[in-house]
Amino acid sequence: MNAACTPIEAAAPRPRRSRQARIAWGSRVVTVGGDAPVRVQSMTNTDTVDAIGTAIQVKELAQAGSEVVRITVNTPEAAQQVPYIREQLDRMGIDVPLVGDFHYNGHRLLSDHPACAEALSKYRINPGNVGKGDKHDRQFAQMIEAALRWDRPVRIGVNWGSLDQELLARMMDENSRRAEPWDAKAVMYEALITSAIGSAERARGLGMNPDQILLSCKVSGVQDLISVYRELARRCDYALHLGLTEAGMGTKGTVASSVAMGILLQEGIGDTIRVSLTPQPGEARTQEVVIASEILQALGLRSFVPSVTACPGCGRTTSTTFQELAKQIDDHLRAQMPVWRERYAGVERLKVAVMGCIVNGPGESKHADIGISLPGTGEAPAAPVFIDGEKALTLRGDNIAAEFHQIVETYIEKRFGAAG
């Protein structure tokens, strides 16, 4: 077998080439695009009129890692509560920027409720829902004027479920006159991109700084999203918000979002992401933030929490000890991150391995910062612990889990405490 002439190239996401926008509240500035990290965004599902309930959910999302949170502003009553939501968050020490999600009547709400316009850090405008006919351009302009008045960035968010029907009908008519007409889906793709970029150009014509314009073209199909965003990124350099518009529930929504966004992010496309996950009954809204963070961490784009490597189990691991220990460690690391993030600089890059038998256990543990290889079925009741690639000690007895838990705590304090 001939040796390769050159080393195998390491896979890595391509660099992004978008403009950089700024979303701010007070001294908190979240940069989006350019050389900024890919940001995690989420959205509340509370009734915005319930200011306390909405503020609590925003706090939960922010503490889970959401760097921007969008809230629905759909009625005068909701608009009136936005300043109080912002006030409650400020009192709790939560400075996450809020984005107002406007449809149909945003031009009136921003004009009639200046305190709402001021309390929001960004406005989401759907060009398919700002009015029809001659009202469209006038009402779109009113929203841009509000953004200029309060010096706020905007996201022009096109959605194929609410696409400008007049634009789509016109493009369908033009397509029918082609010598070789495109299929309907290709026309839909073109309409989405035309609506987004055309609206951005209108905003610039009204005086909007192009650095403060973000775009999105959301669809619900994985391959559709990839097709649309590849072309959108080719045609413009605006910062792009990425996500399936309706990802779905549970594993379906998780897998669809991970596949679609993973492919695009690897290609250097996407500056903010949101996993639009339908919560399972009783499931916390924060699950969508966890999944978005995991996507970025899996690609090596960001580090949010220490990673725990654990084997899936097989006939060698009939004991559930390693599964229980892996879950305990993972849950503990996530629960402690709000405190550790402030106390231990760099702790989010920690790698922990919890393995179940002698086959891959020692080797995998050596690759981690700290790892343990638990005894599999029929193996001697001993668990070697590896620290920084070297075997440090061997645990035995009935308290292996508790002892390893303490070893991890001590390691974090010793390694990251000094850095903090």
UniProtKB/TrEMBL annotation:
Pfam families: GcpE (PF04551), GcpE_C (PF26540)
Reactions this protein catalyses: (2E)-4-hydroxy-3-methylbut-2-enyl diphosphate + oxidized [flavodoxin] + H2O + 2 H(+) = 2-C-methyl-D-erythritol 2,4-cyclic diphosphate + reduced [flavodoxin]
Matching SUPFAM superfamilies: Nitrite and sulphite reductase 4Fe-4S domain-like
Presence of the UniProt keyword Iron in the record: yes
Domain IspG TIM-barrel: 30-291
Keywords annotated in UniProt: 4Fe-4S, Iron, Iron-sulfur, Isoprene biosynthesis, Metal-binding, Oxidoreductase
Recorded GO MF terms: 4 iron, 4 sulfur cluster binding; 4-hydroxy-3-methylbut-2-en-1-yl diphosphate synthase activity (ferredoxin); 4-hydroxy-3-methylbut-2-enyl-diphosphate synthase activity (flavodoxin); iron ion binding
Cofactor, how bound (note): Binds 1 [4Fe-4S] cluster.
Pathway: Isoprenoid biosynthesis; isopentenyl diphosphate biosynthesis via DXP pathway; isopentenyl diphosphate from 1-deoxy-D-xylulose 5-phosphate: step 5/6
Family, similarity comment: Belongs to the IspG family.
Family annotation (PANTHER family): 4-HYDROXY-3-METHYLBUT-2-EN-1-YL DIPHOSPHATE SYNTHASE, 4-HYDROXY-3-METHYLBUT-2-EN-1-YL DIPHOSPHATE SYNTHASE (FERREDOXIN), CHLOROPLASTIC
Protein name: 4-hydroxy-3-methylbut-2-en-1-yl diphosphate synthase (flavodoxin)
